[in-house]
Amino acid sequence: MGKRTHDVIIIGGGSGGLSTAYGCAGLGMKTALIEPNAMGGDCLHYGCVPSKSLLRSASAAALIRNSQDYGLDPVARPAWTYRLVADRTADIIKSIEIHDSAQRYRSLGVEVYQQRARFIDPYALKLDDGSIISASRIVLATGSRPMIPPILGLKETGYITNLDVFTLDTLPSSLTVIGGGPIGVELGQALLRLGVKVAIIETAPHILPREDHDIAAVLREQLVKEGAEIIEGRSVVSISPGEGGSTSTLDDGRVITSQQILVAAGRIGNTEDLAVERAGIQVTKGFFKTDARLRTTAGHILAVGDCNGKYLFTHVAGAEASLAVRRIALKLPGRMKYHAVPWVTYTEPEIASVGLNEQRAVDNKISYRTVTVDMSELDRARTEGATEGFMKILYNSKYQVLGVQAAGPHVGELLMSGVHAVENRWKIGKFLKPIYPYPTVSEAYKRAASKVMGPKLFNPRVRRMLRLAFRYRGEGALNA
Asked: Do 375 and 292 reside in the same domain of the chain?
């Protein structure tokens, strides 16, 4: 083919694609962005934004219902209409989507094509209208979708996914959630608090299987306390229509009945309908195969965000997009480093993690030590009436921080110090240097570091040395 029509083509208008297009166009590249569906991707329309909006509404309902826990007179359970909750969520999406609109990106110099495209060779794509565009560099940012497990009878009985929850007019009276990962537990708790009877089924030994058991157990206890049925280590083998809904049969013979089924059993990349084989792009286990430089098996084509299957988080897609811009527009080297990727599950209590947890440390044969701080030790948690949970820090024999996990109030906001520590290999004693505002949950870092470093300073040997040097007369704590 002759001269290329563009410097770079980006396929996908979600977080990763939009960030890549913004950077490349802003640095002077002639940029094409292809997105046949709504701009903003899954995060804006079916993921991060609507789920956190729904969770906030559900949290408000829980606060009203539990007003007596905060020294207020009991309040009769108010009636609410889910349609109003869904309308609030839709309004929030509308307030944000203008920033992701085709109009805005065209004003930034991006040529936006709101139609489908298929590869005709490694450098060119044919659009639905028959036109052909080409570039020497191409970025795949096609995102992911819910993975639907091959359960006997599921398709025939019917189900919903996160693509459907936020536009329902009414909620089911009861719900079986297939999958106890972040999506399953977030939506499960939200709908539970809005009056739905919820059962969550997870095939792994515990919900949130990427987390340590003790961290996940904090959330499990709260969900059970709120009325959820949690079934772990079991699979649904068949589903059939039942009276007023569906009947799910588990591998141990148990039967769960509910009005509706929510499938939250994982994600799969959007890799079909692109004719990627014509470009020499390999798909592995439903995702584009990439290396640390984000290159697919066609070296001039990169894949960012969910479609590469690395870490399916919006913030990771943004980080990968930044690397793609540096590599493509600035011709700079670089590779992704995933060891300090943080993530948060936005339930109550929140679950937050960065770096190694005990499970990953053992799997990678890495020696570690731990120190924990219970939320009940923090005055802010006491004032919030949310003392369940704890923070756990893993560190090595050199006192370098390997990872931080936490379950408790606002621990997602707590996590950034842990991110910096893991990213920069801080020693745990560095957490003692800042002055922490009081009362905040962030004081957990200071308490954890004091537990580790305190015995190195406050001990009989140091006291003896100081008595000799400065003639101090005190004996110190008898049990020190």
From this structure: no
